[in-house]
Amino acid sequence: MGAVVGKAIRGLSFVLMSVGLVFVVGMRRKSPPVLNAVRRLSRATKRFPLKKAGTSGSDASVVRHIGRKTGKSYETPVRAVRTADGFAVALPYGPNTDWLKNVISSGRATIVYQGEVYAVDQPQVVPLADESSSFTRGNRLAHRVFGITDVLKVRRAD
């Protein structure tokens, strides 16, 4: 019985490591099937991170934006960091996401960060290298691991 359980645990560990490897390599290479799968999973589960995102002490923030086609209000959990004049948001999926297109199209958004609400404008996608110093060492390591090269930079409008 113990040998069977040991084999099952080793088999499960192998499967999990393989999935993790496919995930990391797929994110680094911006593989459309991997990016699309992660996006679908993120959309399906975003209500969970939204419960704490933007609150004091949370690592996650919220970008509130208006749909460029629908005109509907949306909230997207992100990892925003403060900069001298606004915020920077690393773009792990690259610049081809709906929320980013909405923010750029309207030229403005709202960021909920550490329990405070900030109006932001002048959105632009810039190379991560331009804003790298705004991120923690741990963030920069994650950016390298996942091959993140772009950042959304916004200016506080208030």
Describe the 3D structure.
The protein has 158 residues and is of the alpha+beta class. Strand 3 (80-82) and strand 4 form a beta hairpin. The protein has two domains: 2-41; 48-156, Pnp Oxidase, Chain A (Roll). It is elongated. It has helices spanning 2-28, 32-45, 47-50, 98-106, 128-131, 137-146, and strands spanning 61-66, 73-78, 80-82, 86-90, 108-113, 116-127, 150-156.
Quick overview:
With 158 residues, this protein is of the alpha+beta class. It contains six helices and seven strands; from the N terminus they run αααββββαββααβ. The chain is elongated, with a radius of gyration of 18 Å.
CATH architecture of the largest domain: Roll
The whole-angstrom Rg is: 18 Å
Number of strands: 7
* CATH fold description of the largest domain: Pnp Oxidase, Chain A
Fraction of residues in β-strands? 25-35%
Distance from first to last alpha carbon: 66 Å
Number of helices: 6
Element string (H = helix, E = strand): HHHEEEEHEEHHE
Flag low-confidence runs. Answer: none
Q: How do the strands of the widest beta sheet line up side by side?
A: 2-1-5-6-7-4-3
In percent, how helical is the residue content? 40-55%
| Silhouette | elongated
Mean pLDDT: 88
CATH homologous superfamily of the largest domain?
Electron Transport, Fmn-binding Protein, Chain A
Total count of domains: 2
Given helix and strand content, the structural type is alpha+beta
